[in-house]
Specification:
The protein has eleven helices and ten strands. With 236 residues, it is α/β, with parallel strands linked by helices. The protein has a domain of 123 residues: 3-Layer(aba) Sandwich (Rossmann fold).
């Protein structure tokens, strides 16, 4: 049984259909990449799984439990975390306060101190700047805060939505190293990422979204070597 299963999901914004019959499976411990052009429905899929956007039809199940229509705080408390596009930190709060916000859900409270130590071990710069207002950090450091805040919720599955967007190349490399490390430590990953080549190299399985529909699926290596993917997304 898959850790996460999405079955025939439809999502609309008004009259515009963002997802059309999307089905996919995410096995425990895997890295699953979602690939597609801007506007293909990638972020909509993440938001639907997270309970932020209500699906019109279809089903989302986590560990065999139907969570379709659950509010986002219940989804998060079940063990599904999200690192949103654009980071969405609290700029006037300190780094430490941002991280503490990630541990407000009941599953995370008891172990919050230990999780904070783990976040600071992964991101030493956040330990150094824990009392600094998060909005004064660099873009890369703010992404560290966003990832750290997600980790404070003790997720079993993390959905990354464009984690490298707007970051310098050296910082991007660090972000991907962290994603690989988290996966090696047992966290399942869904990765929506503009850097298609890197995401497919990381991925155990990958899906291509076009106009709200899954049009290709396979292992990361299979899609990396698929002529359609190479022409459309890799410029080869």
């Amino acid at each position: 049984m898959s850790l996460l299963a999405v079955d025939a999901l439809d999502l609309f914004y008004g009259d515009a259909q963002a997802l059309d019959g999307v089905s996919l499976a995410v096995d425990e411990g895997a890295v699953v990449a979602i690939v597609g052009a801007n506007g293909a429905g990638k972020s909509s899929l993440i938001r639907a799984i997270a309970g932020i956007e209500p699906a019109a039809r279809g089903r989302v199940a986590f560990k065999g439990q139907d969570i379709t229509g659950w509010p986002s705080h219940r989804v998060c408390n079940l063990g599904i975390g999200q690192v949103a596009e654009g980071r969405q930190i609290f700029p006037t709060l300190s780094v430490r306060e941002n991280l503490e916000m990630g541990a407000v859900i009941s599953r995370a409270r008891a172990g919050a101190a230990a999780t904070m130590r783990r976040v600071f071990e992964i991101f030493p710069r956040l330990a150094e700047r824990q009392r600094q207002a998060a909005g004064t950090l660099s873009g890369g450091e703010q992404q560290m805060v966003a990832i750290g805040r997600c980790l404070m919720g003790r997720p079993e599955l993390i959905m990354f939505d464009e984690p490298s967007l707007g970051l310098a190349p050296t910082v991007v490399q660090e972000v991907f190293r962290v994603i690989r490390r988290l996966n090696d430590e047992g966290i399942t990953i869904i990765l929506v990422e503009q850097n298609v080549a890197v995401s497919l190299k990381l991925a155990d399985r990958a899906y291509v979204l076009e106009n709200g529909r899954i049009v290709l699926a396979g292992t990361g290596e299979e899609l990396l070597n698929d002529d359609r993917v190479r022409q459309a997304y890799l410029g080869l």
